[in-house]
Amino acid sequence: MAISKTKTATLILMLAMTISIIALPLANAQIGETLKTYPFIDATPNPVGVGEEVLVRMGISQQLGRVDQGWEGYEVTIIDPDDITIMLDNNGAGYRSDSTGGTATVWVPTKVGTYQLKFNFPEQENPYGYFDYERGTMFPEGTLMLASETDWIDLVVTEEPHEAYPDQPLPTEYWTRPIDPQLRIWSIVSGNWRERPKNNVAEYNMDAPETAHVLWTEEITTGGLIGGVWTDIPAAAETGDAYEGKFPGAIVLNGILYYQPGGTRARPSTQDYTVGINLKTGEEVFRSSETFSFGMVLYFNSYNYDGTYTYLVQSGGGALNFWDPFTGNWQFGFINVPGGTRTWGPSGEILITSIDYTNGRMLRWNSTKAGHAHLGGPNPDFGSWANSVHGQTWNCSDETWAHTQYDVNVSIATDYAAGTSFFAPILVVYPDRVMSIFFNTTYVRVWAVDATTGSEIFDRTWTPPSDWLAGSNTLHYGGSSDEWEDGIIWIWNKENRQHVAFSTEDGTYLWTTESEHYLDWYGWGNVEHTWYCYEGMMYSTGVGGIVYAYNMENGNTEWTYDMDDLYGEPVTGLRWWGWITMIADGKVYVGTLEHSAENPLPRGAPLICLNATTGEEIFRVNGMYRATRWGGNAVMGDGIYATMDTYDQRVYAVGKGPTMTTVTAPDNGVPFGQSVMIRGTVMDVSPGTKSPELALRFPSGVSAVSDGNMSEWMLHVYKQFSYAPHDLWNGVEVTLYVVDANMNAREIGTATTSVENGAFAYAWTPDIPGTYYLYAEFKGSNGLYGSHAETAFVVDEPIEAATPPPTSTTGSLADAYILPGIIGIIVAVVVIGLVIILMLRKR
């Protein structure tokens, strides 16, 4: 039955009045001076395996009046199977509950048997008076909460481990988003790219590409060879280098690649916009007239709400504005945001650390405190995020609440030297320390202070070799490791082509590398070179075209890789100008670029994937993905490498692609003893193969090829290069299985597809008659996910052989005439005898 809005409003008003009348007599009541308490204790899992974690939950039923308050001094008494008493008391301090009255701790039993547990609540007073809406009474401050304890509970500890909820395996087939949050371990394959990280490491992107396989392409603008009137100069469309980038500041959030076609410098600001492409499907799913600086992934956990928010963030002019990456709607913003070094907090919040060297002050602005602290003292607005921040803009210079937006505001010494890089002051911020390096040709100083107290951790100086001063050497800030433990901070000595490293633990001088190739003189420090740290190694490359891998512990060269060229195409000579585009999943991706390339562009620019530990080449493709320094570097999300190519002005998504397998066998019955011809295909069905251009060029589809052929095949498919395979029958391997009429499953052989059409064939002779189910499987490769197909065929029963007619043989006269005559007489006698017997029976 429908109810009108008027009737609904009246009903609500009547209910509210009734509730008020009922509550009025109780509102005058009040809890007494003492209150009995009702304790509880629980242990999960139960039973549990020895050596496994147990969550011990404890508390009382009475909540407190404020979210930041809790009952104090909780203790748990445990008696183990050997009758030994154990106290869980937080090292004597006792546990503190949350505002609900409950809390928990993790404990690990070490013996098999039955433990007994009991919770003890100590007597204490209510710290804050409030009106208890559930009781309809006041709960006064100072109410005495009486001590109580629970009954003993048993915890059974077994030799066998507790059966945990089974994890779903990591994906083995082409997968898409959204990812159900129950697939917890998939977090290691589903990385985001908020912005270019300090060491260019794409975290949580396990299964990063190991071939040049293309998933899809998308045009940014007019690109490629122009032709026509420019036949004398085979000129390409302008690429965006230098300073007019077409793919700057790309972001990946939740499997969507956001980038700015036309960039922020190449076109008037009124035409700037952002598109979002689904990394898995290649479909455009987002378009906004705004442009964005970086992404944000904020995990918010409060007493009301626990979840993650993602935003596209605009930064500039002292403002931060946050936009929904799904709808494109503006959400909230800040103005007059303080300057400094921006980092990410443990929950993905924005932290901006700054130092006032003159007045000796260190501050750290926190975006979540700035958005919440002024909304009601120390408590977030009812424990929610969206309801309290969305639709608002905060002025960070507002004096009424400005002091609450900083989670660090401490004094430091005033004599620290502020190092500077080409872009900004050098301030390296770790979770527990803030440090800097100051350097000139006679003096290097490295210092660090505690990130929250400002107290000094170390302050060291080092005297460089005299040749630094003698040559007036050019020095650049190099960078620092992601972790300060066993970490380094270093400077680049241009004339010596050496890296000079210092410890981030204590500031001591550590080592100086060997001199790099003389061409690494050129370029402006880390503006034209790339230097990154990853898992105990520091990687360096530049104009000289050699990738160096240095051991961070001692500075020794672990391996080098020459980005050589056979044809003399690079403007730098024998090798391509090196540029580390990314590090991910134990792999170093290296491309090439130059500041302002002349036309015709040099051909064969490589993208190379190297094993980060050994320097072994995992794959190399020449002429497929020409990088850009100013146009926007490659990014990664969900294990997919997304890059702009400055040869044809397209965005390429590089990663493992889906396939489709087909298989056929004769429809009619096959005579037993004859062979069966099995045919099929394995095709690459990545989104890019469905484009109109490829559908016309490959009307039967794009074949799947082996990893070894992938680079040349991708050039043929997406760049229209000619293709001369090393081995025509070197597509992919297909394994064939049957289930025969006796329901026995077995492998019958393997076949290899052709490179050009993806077809395979296999002849097999069945060994028993009956119906066969045929199964063809491509098991997958580094570049392609596997696929399979099924069909069936029948083998006829063998036909019974007919009785052959008598054949004449050459023999003696007796054999031919006398023997048959004798046999005939005997037969006649037998027949006459049978007739006589029958006649006698009739009488």
Briefly characterize the structure.
The chain is mainly beta and 843 residues long. 11% of the residues lie in helices and 36% in strands.
Provide an overview of this structure.
The protein has 843 residues and is mainly β. The strands form 14 sheets. Strands 3, 5, 6, 8, 13 and 14 form a six-stranded mixed β-sheet that branches. Strands 20-21-22-23-27 form a five-stranded mixed β-sheet, with no helix packed on it. The longest helix is centred in the C-terminal third of the chain and has 30 residues.
Q: Stretches where pLDDT falls below 50 for ≥5 residues? A: 1-28, 264-270, 373-381, 809-843
CATH class of the largest domain: Mainly Beta
Looking at the structure, the CATH topology of the largest domain is Methylamine Dehydrogenase, Chain H
Q: Approximately how much beta-strand content do the residues carry?
A: 35-45%
Structural class comes to mainly beta
* H/I helix tally: 8
How far is the N terminus from the C terminus?
104 Å
Please state the average pLDDT score. 88
What is the share of helical residues?
10-25%
Q: What does the overall shape look like? A: globular
Which oligomeric state applies?
Answer: single chain
Keywords:
six-stranded mixed sheet, Methylamine Dehydrogenase, Chain H, mainly beta, 843 residues, Immunoglobulin-like, disordered N terminus
Layout of helices and strands:
Blueprint lengths: L4 H23 L6 E2 L3 E6 L3 E2 L4 E7 L14 E5 L5 E4 L13 E6 L5 E9 L2 E2 L4 E3 L4 E3 L4 E2 L2 E2 L3 E6 L55 E6 L31 E3 L2 E4 L14 E5 L5 E5 L5 E8 L4 E11 L2 E5 L6 E6 L5 E4 L5 E7 L4 E6 H6 L13 H4 L3 E3 L10 E6 L16 E2 L3 E7 L4 E7 L5 E7 L3 H5 L4 E6 L7 E6 L4 E6 L5 E4 L12 H4 L1 E5 L2 E5 L4 E6 L5 E6 L15 E7 L2 E6 L13 E6 L5 E6 L12 E3 L2 E6 L4 E5 L4 E6 L11 E9 L7 H6 L4 E2 L3 H13 L13 E7 L5 E8 L6 E6 L5 E9 L8 E9 L17 H30 L1
Parallel strand pairs: 1-12, 3-14, 23-27
Antiparallel strand pairs: 2-4, 4-7, 5-6, 5-8, 8-13, 8-14, 9-12, 10-11, 15-47, 16-17, 17-18, 18-19, 20-21, 21-22, 22-23, 24-25, 25-26, 26-28, 29-30, 30-31, 31-32, 33-34, 34-35, 35-36, 37-38, 38-39, 39-40, 41-42, 42-43, 43-44, 45-46, 46-47, 48-49, 49-50, 49-53, 51-52, 51-54, 54-55
